[in-house]
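LOG
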Amino acid sequence: MGLFGIFSKKTGSVAPTYNFDPENEKPMIRASICNGEQVAGFKNVKTGEFHEVMMIRSEEDLQLFKQTYQLDKVEKVY
């Protein structure tokens, strides 16, 4: 099973597979201007490294990401 296979719409929620560190990382959506692809993940504010967590293909995917990691707001960067 691939990384994205753990996010099942049948269950309604999933256990976080990445240990998000709110002191050193901020949640964000990286969006491509060219093809519109969106990837949710966390950016390390010290190193700039981005850790991809899941693809965002719909509003439901975004809500699942926010629910899974208990987020209110997610910044989108292009």
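LOG (cont.) second protein
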Amino acid sequence: MRALRVRLAPPSLEIPASPIEVAHRIAPTPLLLVHGDGDHYLGVDHPLAVRRATGGHAELWLERGVRHAETAMSPELVDRMAAWLADHCGSRTNEAERTAA
């Protein structure tokens, strides 16, 4: 918020910690970072820093030509993410749930 020059007047919410500051807390829970190399809000250095902050306990997918957030969501990418979840988090989702995602 400070970088965007947003002024918070009391009562204000506490500024949340950066993902880089808290990423190490996630391990041993599997973590998948999906980031587009064309993201115009956050450069590739950000997900790389988050992954480093996990001590190597995260997997990073840099998606070529993808921009920011939802604009990257193709059915193929969602299927890849669902398969990753099934492989890394046990078979907690069934086929119908993955298809619905």
